[in-house]
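Q: I'm writing up a methods section and want to include an example of the input and output format. Could you take the sequence below and give the corresponding predicted structure tokens, formatted cleanly so I can copy it straight into the document?
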Amino acid sequence: MAKHCDDRVVIITGAGGGLGAAHAKLLASEGAKVVVNDVNEAAAHQVVEQIFAGGGQAIVNTSDITSYDESFDVVEQAINTFGDLHGVVNNAGINRDRMFASMTEDDWDMIISVHLKGHFCITSHAVHYWRGKSKEGAEINARIINTSSGAGLQGSIGQSNYAAAKAGIAALTLNQAAELSRYGITANTIVPAARTGMTTAVAEMAERMKKPEDGSFDYWSPGNVSPVVAYLVSIDSRHITGKAFEIEGGRLSICDGWRSTEPIDKGDRWQIDELGTKIGHLIDSAVPAQKVWGT
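A: Here is the clean output for your methods example:
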């Protein structure tokens, strides 16, 4: 019986644990050939061993996704090992939470590097490969799957760096979708809420997200997110691009992003003393945004 991701070659970053490991194991069980990328070599090997035990195919890669040169090695290893590449799932991430007034330059740079630059590096090399094949006349059916966050879509107290990076990823996805469809490449982002090393670093969150002991539905399991990733990797999703899919437990929705209100057009330059009333009217008539996390 055919599986959803048969023979799809996919790179998954940060796949040594949490969401990435869940994605890797499900995609492999659905027939994908998976490159398990993680800087933690032991964790990556463990995931690959679990995939082998289930009859799947996978390899370990420990390249640094924040290095453009090392990211090329990931793409090259995928192609050399499995003969092709069909998808990149950008999942790797870290936290350096601080209130903005206390944030250091290092806190900022580390998050932007791992999240935003990390989403660029491997994907850039993959796109070069796919574009080259497209120009040679090959039919491309490729996937970019990015990982944003509710923090990036609406802000999050104590996470200015993380929120900015994740907002950048959401905007990056829109551009990728608009620019790359001509080559047969789709780009979407997932916005997951699940139990991972990042989300359970805070004791309160760890308690809230812990696995139920009574065997009931594990609402915060990272495995709840992976079926959406598998569908987006599959050839069945070729018509879907530029979307942000929010997944939490069994809840699935689309974040429809920034939208312009109905404008007030004076037909001339505004005077400063006119703006208070008019801006107040625009704010009052707009659909309220979702609240910033933590407020």
